[in-house]
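Intended use. Records like the one below are meant for learning the mapping from a protein sequence to its folded structure. Do not use them to infer anything beyond what is encoded.
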Amino acid sequence: MGLVKWFLPFCLFILLPFSSAAQKREMRGAWIQCVNGQFQGMGTEKMQQTLTYQLDELQKDGVNLIIFQVRPECDALYESKLEPWSRFLTGVQGKAPSPYWDPLQWMIDECHERGMELHAWINPYRARTKTTKELAQNHIARRAPQRCFEYDDLLILNPGIPENRDYICEVAKDIVTRYDVDGIHMDDYFYPYPVKGVSIPDAAQFRQNSNGIKDVNDWRRYNVDLFVEQFYKTIHEAKPWVKVGISPFGIYRNKKSSPIGSNTNGTQNYDDLYADILLWINNGWLDYCVPQIYWEIGNKAADYETLIKWWSQHAAARPLVIGEDVERTVKFSDLQDPNRNQQSAKMALHRQLPYVKGTVLWYAKAAVDNVGNYGSNLRNVYWKTPALQPSMEFISNKAPKKVRKVKPVWTSDGYILFWTAPKGKDWSDTATKYVVYRFAKGEVQNLNDASKICTITNQTFYKLPYENGKEKCVYVVTALNRLQNESKPVVKKIKL
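Structure written out for the chain above:
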């Protein structure tokens, strides 16, 4: 992603109790990246073992969504007829994994089995990273080198060439139509991050395709705007329920550049990366936004608290989810209490700001490794109870009908609550998951109380915690569709 990773010692701090109520709808994501080489040449069995362990630990931490990098440089960590196998998988671009497997399909299956969503993460324009030396014969930069430009040892698909927009959309549509992904995700690499003294070599395209725009900066933004709009429409025409997420750099504009800018001093999406993220949000060209607010509270150039409040104020037209740097969060002390790290203070900001709908962890392995007790605090405090995904009624507000035939039955495996799926005609009213709640006898059945959720499951049964048959309680079952819109409840009184 946009910021350099930290490899510094981590202090372990004791976390003070957190009293905020559990959240019923919250995106709890984690990025699993390949571009850092963590899987390169690992081999099929070892990579599957590594990912299995990571997913198991993330599930314990309460994570309900994985963003898995499948296209770091116009290549593929999945079977593709359009682009070559990634070297970040096998060590050689174009070489298939052996023993053969399809990492994207495998991850979809494993995530769905754990009740997690899987969003396929692509880097749209980057055609070659700095460390890649050899490109496969069928790589786009070898098939159409005139559609790329070099910049700071990178190779970039030129956003000013219309065919490149079509090509990226074709690749994304291929993923969405052939794989049961829940979302497709792009990060902050549109035009390349600026390097002092290095100019973008796109003057010829500006002359040819300026569309009457006089300023080259406006033209570059226009190119990316056209792409994002086309990308969004392409995905939803293929599968309306697949969510489009974008993870921009953490600063939209600094106040010195614009009156609506944040009180910060750093690289800017709008001015430096030609990414007008607020335009995309306000025009509805994405379904969730994950700004990478990777800094600490108190950072002089880009204060975390300043930025999370800015995004909450300006980017609320679509679900706002915060990109959180795990390592940097635990590296810095709480400004009010030097004996603990900043995790609790940051989480408190998340819960205080009503437009913040969740967190995506940069990066998954840091949470799995439990640096600074970050993962333990997720599973024991912040993400202790299950959560549904944020509501996206702007895609569809339709929900499944109620579940049927809810009944507790004694089986050889114990006392099981069974139900039957509701009948559905299409994706919007077909049940894919179920929520089971438990209430005490006489307790108000408030389905907004997330602490009452026993499980979110794709099964049509739930094992009851039977003891002696003397405790009276009430179970409630609802159905969810692909967007996790919730049906009306069905209530069942049970003695446990």
